[in-house]
Amino acid sequence: MKVYAKGGPGMDLMFLNEEEAIQLQAFFRKRGIDHILFKSKDAFIFSIPDKAKDINRYIDMFAHFIIQVKRGEFLHKILTEQFFYENKEEREQIIEIVSEMCSGKREELIALTGKINEFEMVRNAVGSFFDSSDSILFESLLTFRLKEYQQELISFLHVAIDEYKMEQEYQMFINMLREYLKNRSTGRKTVHLSIDEEITFYDEDFGEMEKSDVMKMVDRRLLAIHPVYIDSAVIAPLLSMAPERIFIYTMYDEKPLVRTLRNIFEERMTILPPIH
């Protein structure tokens, strides 16, 4: 990449950080906009030839650059410096949750923060900045015009961190139950389980099992280990019986209980349509 020692006509977007300037140039180049990066004194300049011509395309591209590139960098920095997450993989998992919230995929989490139209918010900030001058400093855009956007990201980040911690705790819980299951002797070869308005256990011959008999099979140590998390009506009996095969009959295959059962029993479990 060549850096030339002169400026260009039209609007100039100035960078104090060369790496950031090259990063923007590469982003634009991949999307069919190829401009020379100039150097002037201590600044690196990305020059837009004609401010009036196709300016909306540039505003859109800058907005996408901020969302796709700078958002992640900003969140990595906040997680490292303010929340002391030194592990990159952990930071990336938390940032992925924020990204899903921004795209509207985590409705249960968005309910805690409120929705934002990320692209519109960023684009409006970029557009107002472009209207303010023919020579603008990129750092000022990030620091001042995008301050509201960054505050929104931080509010998302707080929720994402809590969710990440809960997901880690849940995974530890699942791993503990898998380990218990691995070391548990098989009590029954096959168990059929109907999950509808009510939950009903059946033996391998499809004979209905009385609730009192099911509860008698529960290994009480399970409830002592994690009394809050272990479902005593379904999960504890199945773990205690440790069947080789489990057939779940339900229309609620995305229900949290069914997802947890799938995570614990994995290949032992088959989900089928409800029993009529």
Beta strand count: 9
Distance between the termini: 68 Å
Can you write the helix and strand succession as a string?
EEHEEHHHHEHHEEHHHEHE
- Structure class: alpha/beta
Structural descriptors:
3 domains, single chain, disordered N terminus, alpha/beta, 276 residues, four-stranded mixed β-sheet, five-stranded mixed β-sheet, 9 strands
Explain how this protein is built:
- Pfam families: YtxC.
- InterPro entries: Spore_YtxC.
- This is Sporulation protein YtxC.
- By secondary structure, the protein is α/β, with parallel strands linked by helices.
- The chain folds into three domains: 1-49, no CATH class; 54-176, no CATH class; 184-272, no CATH class.
- It is built from eleven helices and nine strands.
- The protein has helices spanning 18-30, 55-81, 88-102, 107-113, 118-132, 138-145, 147-182, 211-216, 220-225, 235-241, 256-265; strands spanning 3-4, 11-15, 37-40, 43-48, 135-137, 190-195, 199-202, 245-249, 269-272.
- 25% of the residues are buried.
What's the gist of this structure?
This is Sporulation protein YtxC. The protein has 276 residues and is an alpha/beta fold. 54% of the residues lie in helices and 14% in strands.
Secondary structure layout:
Layout: E1 3-4, E2 11-15, H1 18-30, E3 37-40, E4 43-48, H2 55-81, H3 88-102, H4 107-113, H5 118-132, E5 135-137, H6 138-145, H7 147-182, E6 190-195, E7 199-202, H8 211-216, H9 220-225, H10 235-241, E8 245-249, H11 256-265, E9 269-272
Helix pairs in contact: 2-3, 2-5, 2-7, 3-7, 4-7, 7-11
